[in-house]
Write a structure and sequence with these properties.
This protein is α+β, with helices and mostly antiparallel strands and 180 residues long. It contains five helices and five strands, in the order ααβαβαββαβ. α2 crosses α4. 36% of the residues lie in helices and 16% in strands. It has a single domain, classed as NADH Oxidase. Strands 1, 2, 3, 4 and 5 form a five-stranded antiparallel sheet that branches.
């Protein structure tokens, strides 16, 4: 089957946890953030805020406080994807911010990969201790909830792509119970 650049990026993207000591160009960072903001969202509410962190002290503080984000110690950048849930009357944003921000995260991961960078999704929400760590380090106002921290950089080495296709996970039309 013929593929295109988008499909190729989806199939070759992988989680990268080790980075070389090289800063990321500002135009690439902006392009990655633009890709995040191009994600779909419920009723087009776009309930996200993106913290682009390239300050070494802040990256190290996040690495110290987040148990599964130690790779931040050698990452030149992270993007913290957050939901803006300050408007208590906006039921759409209150209800769908996780899905909306997750779509933005996938765009960020794919765009980073397509630009020759490595990245990995490290979770904050719903682990409130992790969310509070990110909130405290980055001085987030109330109502800004970090979904995840994405360390990004130029990969140090090459890690294999993991084949994830499994036809057993596909149900055509409706689930049929098989009795024995």
């Amino acid at each position: 089957m013929e593929t295109n650049k988008v499909i190729e990026s989806i199939f070759t993207r992988k989680s990268v946890r080790k980075f070389i000591n090289k800063p990321i160009e500002k135009d690439k960072i902006e392009l990655i953030l633009r890709a995040g903001m191009a994600a779909p969202s419920a009723r087009n509410r776009q309930p996200w805020k993106f913290f682009a962190v390239d300050d070494r002290k802040l990256l190290d503080e996040l690495a110290e406080g987040l148990p599964y984000a130690k790779m931040l110690f050698n990452a030149p950048l992270c993007i913290v994807v957050c939901g803006d849930i300050r408007d208590k009357d906006d039921l759409t944003a209150q209800t769908f911010w996780v899905q909306d921000c997750s779509a933005a995260v996938e765009n960020i991961l794919l765009s980073a990969h397509s630009l020759g960078l490595g990245a990995v999704w490290t979770a904050c929400y719903p682990k409130m201790d992790r969310a509070e760590t990110a909130r405290k380090v980055l001085n987030m106002p109330d109502g800004i909830m970090p979904l995840c921290v994405i360390p990004i950089g130029y990969a140090d080495g090459d890690s294999p792509v993991i084949e994830k296709w499994n036809s057993d996970n596909i149900i055509w039309n409706k689930y049929i119970t098989v009795t024995k």
